[in-house]
Amino acid sequence: MSDMITADLVDLDLSADTKEAAARALAERMVSLGRVTDLEGFLADVAAREAQMPTGLDGGIGIPHCRSAHVTEPTLGFGRSSAGIDFGAPDGPADLIFLIAAPAGADDAHLTILSSLARQLMNTEFTDALRSAEDARAAAALIRGEEAPAATAAGAGEDTAAASGAASADAAAGSTAQDTAAPAPAPAAVPAPAPGPAAAAETADVTAGATEGTAVGATESAAAGAAEGATGGPGAGERPFRVVAVTSCPTGIAHTYMAAESLENAGREAGVEVVVETQGSAGFTRLDPAVIAAADGVIFAHDVPVRDKDRFAGKPTVDVGVKAGINRAAELIGEVRGKAERGEATSGAAPATPVERAGDSTEGYGTKLRKWLMSGVSYMVPFVAAGGLLIALGFAIGGYTVNKAPSVMDHFLWTQADSWGALLYQIGVVSFGFLVPVLAGYIAYGMADRPGLVPGFVGGAIALTINAGFLGGLVAGLVAGGVVMAIQRVRIPAALRGIMPVVVIPLISSAIVGFLMFVVIGKPIAAAQKGMTDWLNGLTGTNAILLGALLGLMMCFDLGGPVNKVAYTFATAGIAVASPSDSAMKIMAAVMAAGMVPPLAMALATTVRGRLFTQTERENGKAAWVLGASFISEGAIPFAAADPLRVIPSAMVGGALTGALSMTFGATLRAPHGGIFVVPLIGNPFFYLIAIAAGVCVTTALVVVLKGMRKQAPEAAAAGTDPAAGPATAARDAKHTVAA
Fold first, then answer.
1. Crossing angle of helices 644-665/685-710, nearest 10°?
2. Chain centre distance of CA 193
3. What does the pLDDT look like over 286-320, one tens digit per residue?
4. Which one, of 235, 243, 236, 240, lies nearest residue 260 by Cα?
5. Could you tell me which residues come within 8 angstroms of residue 715 by beta carbon, excluding any fewer than 6 positions away?
6. What CA–CA distance (Å, rounded) separates 270 from 456?
7. CA nearest neighbour of 382 among 349, 344, 335, 431
8. How far apart are CA 518 and CA 525, in angstroms?
9. What is the pLDDT of residue 565?
């Protein structure tokens, strides 16, 4: 492990009684060594990873871990608890706690070393040696691989010790068979011994934490019971059963490699060849296609989508979460053998969609729907920005009658400003013409990948033709994606599969989507779009002010996230026409003003009360001046991530005030982006800037007050409170971690 762990990072008497307090105690050691720059920010990243899935493992192990921008170099902290700490493992509390801190841009070599630790945790001799280590130096040397653990399993002889030493050496070098995607070993190289007492004890310890007396039965049941008739190993001259597996977890640091090690160990016990592709943070090397072709079964142990999953189509497959790969490896091997004997094979499923490739395998349809819509919006926004700014510049150069100018193809004078204004305006109008088709096309793309593009664009273009507008584009994209997904589920003869994506799917899906948009759902959507437009045009007085406040709240709620994008898209849809209404331009002005508030307020707060922020946050504050002035709300995300309960509500209050004031002052905006750089294009610019300044001052004041109140807790601790004094203090630490 090189110098990733030293004696200073080891606590053999960890007194914390919660996982939050344990992470804090080990993280404080990393801070003292300069390995972590911001304690609260790092703990927030650890808590976010823990929220995805508990990090407790059977056998008394807890491995909280994360990748964080607050980590300067890959670091490992180790703590040993006599009372045990609950990390969510099925078999109870953990007494061995490893805190893995990886930098956000950690290189492959360091992540490979971290993965080697994960593999060592599957070795009971290694964990037993850690439990019996008498001082921090010895424990650190053992983890680094400088000392081989003594054989502790009953009946273990020289062969076991030698194998353990070899495993430690391999771990220290970061070289593993599946990391290089080596071909499956020759049949003769795979031992198939009957499980003896030592092997049974080791397997049972890994999978269920069982005692030696029950291990033999547990091993035999796991290896053979899951598949009726499955044997423990091949007979003389028989080819062994072959399995290929893929393991992955959200962080790609620990569980990914522990599941791989567990599956390989279980395969050796059962006389089965197992070759694993670890899709971790250090990247992955694809299994040799010949190895996949020769495999008799497939195991997916993953918590994020398997990349290039279609490579394994047509084979018996077991698909489970990554923890099952760690805790039930032998059972999974038995299950896939049973499927192979029964001839159960997966069909040639379509490759994962863009949303599935970027998401979590456990996401529900609500989350997927949001991602589908965001896929369309994210591709649409550049057209909005380019077209909107070109239109705004056209008005600025050519005057407000530029929209009535003849085509520049027929009339363009190089020396006249009006001609240049008309040119910019007409280019912008063409760009705006793509908004609805692009929105619909890429919503369908997020649902069904490239086959969804054609019907999506067709449906979006029809939405424009029938004046269904923005709402029509949303519906057309969802309908197009759904139609393509339905077509892809139909079983197609092998001879026709080659023409499906280029002929059949575009033809059938476009015809269906066109029929639905023209004949069935287009007219009601167009009526709804007209009703919403008329309502916006009629907004005056109190209603307009309340709408401005609501849009300001939405812009500051998640700082560039889905809610922010809903408000922004709502505003840009109103001005995405050649001659937007006055109400639509007021809404656009309110949205942009509110979106500038959070980063500008954080920049001001770090300037006037720098001591309330970390050094990293003060540096981020300097950049936030520029980001806020440019209408990039994401400039406040580092502050919100570190302290969401104080920053986000404060930003929402300021944003709501700014949105309401902007509507009150009647400020208008034709450009969908640009911040202070498009102030000359804003109607009533002086009061518009006053609205922004008011929101920034209110947000700054709230953040300073709330953070000042938080500082009282550390001061009380400094006055004599022992940070590890018991349950009350641990509860305070846990609360503080959650709040951060």
1. 160
2. 43
3. 888 889 988 999 999 887 777 777 788 888 899 88
4. 243
5. none
6. 50
7. 431
8. 11
9. 73
Which residue's entry shows tokens 């999974």?
332
User: Could you tell me which of 300, 301, 286 has the C-alpha nearest to residue 255?
Assistant: 301
Q: Give phi and psi for 284, each to the nearest 5.
A: -150, 150
Q: Which residue numbers are catalytic?
A: 65, 249
Q: Cα–chain-centroid distance for residue 736?
A: 24
How far apart CA 439 and CA 511 sit, in angstroms, is 19
The pair of structure tokens assigned to 155 is 């009946």
Residue 15, pLDDT above cutoff 80: yes
Q: Are 460 and 437 spatial neighbours (Cβ–Cβ below 8 Å)?
A: yes
Does 29 score more than 80 pLDDT?
yes
Which pLDDT tens digit goes with each residue over 59-115? 888 888 888 888 888 888 999 998 899 888 877 899 999 998 888 765 554 555 566
Q: Which residues contact 647 (CB under 8 A, 6 or more apart)?
A: 598, 602, 636, 639, 640, 703
Please tell me the distance from the alpha carbon of residue 133 to that of residue 426, in angstroms, as a whole number.
76
How far apart, in Å, are the Cα atoms of 468 and each of 7, 510, 569, 572?
A: 67, 18, 16, 16
- Return the SS3 of 247: strand
Reply yes or no on whether the pLDDT at 161 is more than 60.
Answer: no
pLDDT digits (tens, 9 = 90+) for 578-588: 567 788 888 99
Confidence of residue 436 (pLDDT cuts 50, 70, 90): confident
Model pLDDT, residue 578: 59
Could you give the count of Cα atoms lying within 13 Å of 406 in the half-sphere of its Cβ? 5
State the amino acid at position 201 in one-letter form: A
Please give the Cα distance from 598 to 738 (Å, whole number): 22
- Cβ density class 372-390: b for 16+ within 10 Å, e for less: bbbbbbebbbebbbbbbbb
Instruction: Identify the bridge partners of residue 278 per DSSP, sorted by sequence position.
Output: 247
pLDDT at 215 over 60: no
Q: Measured between alpha carbons, how far is 231 from 195 in angstroms, rounded to an integer?
A: 12
- Residue 99 belongs to what H/E stretch? strand 94-103
Give the residue-averaged pLDDT of 129-135: 89
Instruction: Over range 641-655, report the average pLDDT.
Output: 87
Determine contact, residues 368/353, Cβ cutoff 8 Å.
no
pLDDT of 200 reads: 37
**Quick one: 94 exposed, middle or buried, by C-beta within 10 A (0-12, 13-18, 19+)?**
buried
DSSP-derived 3-state class of residue 318: strand
pLDDT of 526 over the 50 cut: yes
Question: Closest by alpha carbon to 323, among 18, 88, 85?
Answer: 88
Give 708's contacts (C-beta < 8 A, 6+ positions apart): 609, 612
Residue among 283, 318, 250 nearest 178 (CA): 283
Cβ atoms < 10 Å from Cβ of 90 = 12
Is 80 exceeded by the pLDDT of residue 160?
A: no
Q: Is pLDDT at 23 greater than 50 in this prediction?
A: yes
Q: Which residue do the tokens 């390989």 mark?
A: 264
Identify the pLDDT of residue 144: 83
Neighbours of 715 (CB within 10 A): 9
How many Å apart are CA 258 and CA 261, to the nearest integer? 5
Phi, psi of 576 (to 5 degrees): -80, 45
**Coil, strand, or helix at residue 433?**
coil
* Structural Rg of the chain based on CA atoms: 31
Q: Is 343 left (phi over 0), alpha (psi -120 to 50) or beta?
A: left
145 contacts: CB under 8 Å, gap ≥ 6? 1, 116, 168, 169, 171, 172
The Cα 367–Cα 320 span in angstroms is 21
**Of 264-278, 405-419, 565-579, 710-724, the least confident:** 710-724
Query: Which residue type is seen at 522?
Result: G
Identify whether the C-beta of residue 398 lies closer than 8 Å to the C-beta of residue 507: no
